[in-house]
Every structure is written in C-alpha cells, then in structure tokens.
Amino acid sequence: VQLQESGGGSVQSGGSLRLSCAASGNIYKNFIMAWFRQAPGKDREKVADISRYGSSTTYADSVKGRFTISRDNAKNTLYLQMNSLKPEDTAMYYCAARLVGSSTYSYWGQGTQVTVSS
To answer: Mean pLDDT of successive 10-residue segments in the chain (118 residues)?
Structure first.
C-alpha cells in the first residue's frame, strides 16, 4: 500500500483544513487507518484512527470535538476534517495504515504540513 497526503497549508487560529490521504491498491478495506502528527521537538502523536469500514473511530483528547476522521473505501481515500484549529495543532501530519489483526502501522505517507498562526 502506498499512501499520499494532501490538503495541508497555513491557516489562522479558528480556521479549518481538510486533509486527504490517497491509497494505492484495491485492498484498502483490509486496513485500519490513522492520522498521526509530529511537531518539531515533540514525539509523534496519534490524532485519530478509523476501523476498516468506518464504523468505529477514536481521537486524541487534544482534538476531540474539533477533528473528524472518515474514509471512502470506494475511492481508497482517508480524510481528516480539522475545525477550530489552534496554534498547537501546527505539525507535520501523516496518514498510516495497519492490516487488520496487526498492531503495527507498517505503511506511511510522506506527510503534509499544517501551520496555524495566532
């Protein structure tokens, strides 16, 4: 599986962005998907994940109520809608995939930068 993120950019505090992650291959539905982020000097953080058919999602406390993860298996695409953005959301955002039954995210995109100014 190859993953490619898009949709990052610069936005003012309170603004919104929608990230997309396009996946290659027709086995996309066999993967649990997630968004991670990493800011300079900080550890990588899992922002949200979603089950293979989208029926179950989890979020980091820091983004609950502001971010929404979703997927379209017909389009092999993962999304992250980010609202009410804060300067502390500034980071490189990565999508990642792990096979159902595996505990390891083995597939990663190159990342897309999100910068939120106050």
So the answer is: 96 98 82 96 97 96 98 94 98 96 95 97
Any idea which residue has 């910068």 for tokens?
115
Q: CA separation (Å) from 33 to 7, 53, 72, 82, 112? A: 17, 10, 11, 17, 16
Backbone dihedral region for residue 28 (phi beyond 0: left; psi -120 to 50: alpha; all else: beta): alpha
pLDDT tens per residue across span 16-41: 999 999 999 766 778 999 999 999 99
| Sign (positive or negative) of CA dihedral 45, 58, 18, 21 | positive
